[in-house]
């Protein structure tokens, strides 16, 4: 009898700990016999009784229920939960419990949080999961399934704004809603909307606020990761899942009204068939994975400038790349040679006019087949003390400047002697051995497999470079995906993503960025496994173009930072390390009901911030913990408090500083 009771207790314990599976879909359009069949069938297969409920906060779907049935669901229907009141309706609670597969259709993650959090609907979904059911979501429906949710209650937050000013870009989190996948912060539409920079900023902001690490998981559109009850996620679909993790060597700097700076963040990118154990961090490659040995970086004796913009105002500005090139000339009488194709002369002529207005000698060097072995043209190259590449065709530039030609030999001779060179806009791609070409050929170029590998001039060997990252939203996917694809195809050691209004200088092996958007640098020197998507859009000849990379690191390098590309252990010299302790005014002020308090530390310090009312009575202690050097912030919520003044006091060692804030309801 005692033995039966013992086994009953074990059975109850196991049932109590049971949990289900989760399907994280990065967004995109589902269709029959398309990329979505595999992950959505996975959801049906992980629903014990194959009963799938499609949920949303606003509308129903005529497509999803029959689609799930076509994939093996016994039954499927819609349920709209449009308000807190509806979410607390016991009839809806009972309806949800009739299903063992839940799917959230997407939309706006704040609407899910705002309308369902703390309600019977949230309770019912959790009960379905805890008894072994499956919960999935796409786009915003995916975002609310991770432990940490970027809730978008203020704004969607663009990647560019997150890189340029992360503390004021609208990054806010919710951590007590659903939360079925512990230890991660999931983002969606990852390459489609260029969200790599945004997710990096989110990790830094979250660690600053909470003092702990979280894994960033970026799921691309038309791609999914199914996570089983044992915490192992498998990638399915057409694209990639990107993993970002802090390591003991990782560092970052967050400062008010300044760009993000990060170094040595672990970067892994997975394609279809890869598995990731969230609890152990192990990555299991599929049989299709390939070995990878990147080519070495070679130091350049001169300075190479790479301008990420196609806008004349960026090139000609007082802090633009042309002014930086001018500063590298040895004398004001030096002549700058402007290399361009005859087909795309306009921008070269604009640069020529600008240099002449600055009283700098310039020479238009239009290159074609007839001139590649012209002695007079080669002599003109030899007479220059600086070069600008602008408007050249990737289909012909490498051939026209081949080292066996007179023009190519003259150019390489000058660069070896230390002559600086500036590559503007798409010409930045040509500075490397190879790069991604046809980036503006079609807005779905990377998705349809339309990109090509363009041969470069090999001036910066071992690099894959893509400029104009966020210049045009139509081509963000081509640019971001194209960089990783060309890096893996060309066995590059480094990948560079440069935005508009920014440029980079590389001297010997030292990289320095300038401008408003930090440059993102992917270090692939320790990558040994790569893979490529095999999925082809129906009717297209080539597969989607991106790449799996296992074991890379990523850096976010802002103006004032520098990165030694040749170092064995990467060290980023961060700029503007705070030297003084400072408590900043809270924002907004007056506020209702929440405000944010900012503070700066010159070194790692133990910090206490306590809020008092006007009578000196303690209201709450906001923080009482160790913080790293740099800028930090903490949120104060005055829910349940009456309008009026409050004071916040910050103590760190012997330093005490005070601020005043006004609650106005």
3D structure, described in words:
With 665 residues, the chain is an alpha+beta fold. Strands 6, 7, 8, 9, 12, 13, 14, 17, 25, 26, 29, 30 and 31 form a 13-stranded mixed beta sheet that branches. It is globular and about 85 Å long.
**Helix tally?**
18
Structural class: alpha+beta
Rg over C-alpha atoms, rounded to the nearest angstrom: 28 Å
Instruction: Could you tell me the CATH topology label of the largest domain.
Output: Rossmann fold
CATH homologous superfamily assignment of the largest domain: Class I glutamine amidotransferase (GATase) domain
Helix content: 10-25%
Instruction: Give the CATH class of the largest domain.
Output: Alpha Beta
CATH architecture of the largest domain: 3-Layer(aba) Sandwich
Provide the low-confidence segments as ranges: 1-18
**What is the count of β-strands?**
40
| Tertiary shape | globular
Number of domains: 3
Distance between the termini: 64 Å
Strand content: 25-35%
Question: How would you state the average pLDDT, rounded?
Answer: 91
Biggest sheet overview: 13 strands, mixed
Strand-helix topology:
Blueprint: H1 2-17, E1 21-25, H2 37-45, E2 51-56, H3 64-70, E3 75-80, H4 84-87, H5 90-97, E4 101-104, H6 109-116, H7 120-130, E5 134-138, H8 140-143, E6 146-150, H9 159-164, E7 173-174, E8 181-187, H10 196-210, E9 215-219, E10 223-227, E11 232-237, E12 241-245, E13 251-253, E14 261-270, E15 275-277, E16 283-284, E17 290-291, E18 300-307, H11 312-316, H12 321-328, E19 335-341, H13 346-357, E20 361-367, H14 375-382, E21 386-389, H15 397-400, H16 406-416, E22 421-424, E23 434-437, H17 445-448, E24 452-455, E25 463-466, H18 476-489, E26 494-497, E27 502-508, E28 510-515, E29 519-523, E30 529-531, E31 548-557, E32 562-564, E33 572-573, E34 582-583, E35 594-601, E36 605-613, E37 618-627, E38 630-637, E39 644-652, E40 655-663
Parallel strand pairs: 1-5, 2-3, 2-4, 4-5, 6-8, 8-9, 18-22, 19-20, 19-21, 21-22, 25-26
Antiparallel strand pairs: 1-10, 6-7, 9-12, 10-11, 11-15, 12-14, 13-14, 14-31, 15-16, 17-30, 18-27, 23-24, 26-29, 27-28, 28-32, 29-31, 30-31, 32-33, 34-35, 35-38, 36-37, 36-39, 39-40
């Amino acid at each position: 009898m005692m033995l039966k009771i013992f086994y009953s207790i074990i059975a109850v314990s196991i049932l109590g700990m049971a949990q289900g599976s989760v399907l994280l879909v990065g967004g995109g359009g589902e269709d029959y016999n398309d990329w979505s069949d595999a992950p959505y069938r996975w959801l049906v297969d992980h629903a014990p009784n194959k009963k799938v409920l499609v949920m949303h906060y606003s509308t129903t779907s005529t497509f999803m229920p029959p689609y799930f049935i076509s994939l093996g669901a016994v039954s499927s229907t819609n349920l709209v939960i449009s308000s807190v009141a509806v979410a607390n309706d016991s009839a809806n609670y009972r309806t949800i419990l009739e299903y063992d597969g839940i799917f959230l259709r997407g939309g706006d993650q704040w609407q899910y949080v705002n309308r369902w959090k703390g309600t019977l609907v949230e309770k019912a979904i959790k009960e379905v999961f805890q008894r072994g059911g499956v919960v999935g979501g796409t786009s915003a429906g995916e975002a609310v399934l991770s432990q940490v949710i970027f809730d978008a209650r203020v704004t969607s937050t663009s990647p560019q704004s997150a890189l340029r000013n992360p503390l004021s870009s609208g990054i806010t989190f919710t951590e007590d809603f659903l939360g079925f996948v512990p230890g991660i912060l999931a983002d969606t539409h990852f390459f489609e909307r260029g969200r790599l920079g945004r997710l990096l900023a989110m990790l830094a902001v979250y660690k600053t606020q909470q003092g702990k690490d979280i894994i960033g998981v970026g799921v691309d559109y038309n791609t999914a990761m199914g996570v089983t009850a044992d915490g192992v996620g498998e990638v399915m679909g057409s694209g990639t899942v990107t993993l970002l993790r802090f390591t003991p060597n990782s560092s970052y700097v967050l400062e008010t009204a300044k760009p993000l700076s990060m170094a040595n963040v672990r970067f892994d990118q997975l394609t279809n068939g890869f598995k990731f154990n969230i609890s152990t961090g192990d990555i299991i490659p599929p049989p299709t994975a390939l070995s990878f040995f990147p080519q070495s970086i070679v130091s350049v004796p001169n300075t190479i400038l790479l301008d990420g913009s196609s806008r004349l105002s960026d090139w000609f500005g007082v802090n633009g790349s042309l002014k930086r090139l001018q500063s590298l000339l040895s004398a004001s009488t030096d002549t700058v040679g402007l290399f361009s194709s005859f087909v795309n002369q306009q921008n070269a002529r604009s640069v020529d006019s600008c240099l002449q207005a600055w009283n700098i000698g310039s020479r238009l060097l239009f290159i074609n087949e007839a001139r590649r072995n012209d002695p007079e043209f080669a002599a003109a190259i030899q007479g220059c003390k600086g070069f600008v590449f602008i408007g050249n065709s990737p289909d012909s530039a490498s051939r026209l400047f081949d080292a066996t030609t007179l023009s190519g030999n003259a150019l390489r001779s000058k660069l070896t002697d230390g002559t600086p060179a500036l590559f503007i806009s798409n010409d930045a791609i040509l500075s490397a051995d190879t790069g991604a070409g046809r980036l503006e050929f079609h807005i779905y170029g990377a998705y349809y497999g339309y990109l090509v590998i363009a041969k470069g001039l090999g001036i910066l060997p071992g690099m894959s470079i893509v400029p104009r990252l966020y210049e045009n939203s139509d081509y963000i996917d081509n640019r971001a995906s194209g960089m990783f694809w060309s890096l893996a195809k060309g066995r590059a050691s480094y990948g560079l993503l440069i935005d508009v209004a920014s440029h980079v200088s590389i001297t010997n092996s030292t990289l320095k960025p300038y401008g408003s958007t930090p440059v993102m640098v992917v270090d692939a020197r320790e990558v040994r496994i790569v893979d490529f998507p095999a999925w082809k859009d129906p009717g297209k000849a080539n597969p989607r173009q991106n790449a799996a990379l296992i074991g890379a690191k990523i850096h976010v390098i802002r103006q004032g930072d520098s990165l030694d590309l040749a170092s064995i252990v990467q060290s980023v010299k961060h700029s503007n390390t705070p030297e003084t302790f400072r408590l900043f005014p809270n924002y907004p002020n007056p506020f209702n009901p929440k405000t944010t308090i900012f503070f700066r530390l010159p070194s790692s310090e133990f910090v206490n911030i306590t809020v008092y009312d006007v009578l000196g009575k303690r209201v709450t202690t906001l923080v009482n913990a160790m913080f790293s050097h740099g800028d930090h912030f903490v949120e104060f919520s005055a829910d349940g408090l009456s309008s009026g003044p409050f004071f916040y006091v910050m103590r760190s060692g012997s330093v005490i500083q005070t601020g005043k804030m006004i609650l106005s309801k």
